[in-house]
């Protein structure tokens, strides 16, 4: 009997991170209740406009995220994918959002588009203020889904990172572009829709637009499909374009063309671009402002010059050190040691503490507050709290 007990203790020992079947059932029950409430609120009809109208804190901004929290309710716990994100996108500017995989970049943009996978994914708190063309300011986080349709695609457009999975394989490029025109301009005239689609394909520098119009997505190269996605995003002359890693899986020459195209289009639409990428080189070339995210939070933000010439947070410094440099010989590329904390059970202290080589005693305390070191540059780190 003692031998069997020893075997059980060795192989069936419950560690601090494991969950019993009872725990999982309790979590699932509570999560179902929470998801039901959020879905009910989101799908309300005939909601008074006053409930989701707001005011911009700065009239020069087109979007303001404030305390945004987007969680995923799973059977093993609540994943805090975005946990209190606050930053702004000024008018007529490019804001680059950078960070490693899983830091919450794409979920932040999907929250703005209200495309977070439901019912598991929900915006649980915070606000997303958007200055629309009609002069009103909408809090997108509080808008019912029926009202979001009026903004999504028409005033805020998104270029997804993988065009092959974003385009419908059973419809031609022309049919998909025409649908955008018919839906948002409320005009079923096929001739006008085709003319508008061809104009968009010409705008993004597509060779032989008439032929591309008749093609299916699989008949185009990766660069051509990405141009089609950009044409689709610009079809309604939006105020804000979200580019979620628009150059992923493209070769270097095509990447350069797509980035140059985005730069030129910013001037054409007279709007702003939210550029999400892993590539610091792309950010340095394109962005006016940079937001650095880690484990669902903004850890540093500022102008491109401030972030690249004077990085403050150890994570930002680590990201820059890990980028290859031309004409510099190294035996091994730098990598940030350790792993990102589990988003289900995030610690109360700084999420980067276990990986940081510049820890101070205060780092053992609560998560650090954001410290403004200049009117445009801020960082969430104890090392700068006393200085400013």
**Quaternary state, please?**
single chain
Low-confidence region ranges: none
Order of helices and strands: HHEEEHEEHEHHHHHEHEHEEHHEE
Computed CA radius of gyration, to the nearest angstrom: 23 Å
Strand order within the widest beta sheet: 6-7-8-3-9-10-12-11
Q: Count every helix, treating DSSP H or I runs of 4 or more residues as helices.
A: 13
Largest sheet: 8 strands, mixed
Give the averaged pLDDT, no decimals.
Answer: 88
Shape: globular
Total beta strands: 12
- Tell me the structural class: alpha/beta
Helicity range? 25-40%
Proportion in β-strands: 15-25%
Span of the ends, CA to CA: 65 Å
Description:
The chain has helices at 2-11, 21-42, 105-113, 145-148, 163-166, 173-184, 190-203, 209-214, 222-234, 252-269, 280-286, 304-309, 314-321; strands at residues 61-74, 77-90, 94-98, 121-131, 137-139, 156-159, 240-244, 272-277, 289-294, 297-303, 371-372, 378-379. It is globular, with a radius of gyration of 23 Å. The strands form 2 sheets. An 8-stranded mixed beta sheet has the order 6-7-8-3-9-10-12-11, sandwiched between helices. A 4-stranded antiparallel beta sheet has the order 2-1-4-5. It is an alpha/beta fold. A hairpin with a 5-residue loop joins strand 11 (371-372) and strand 12.
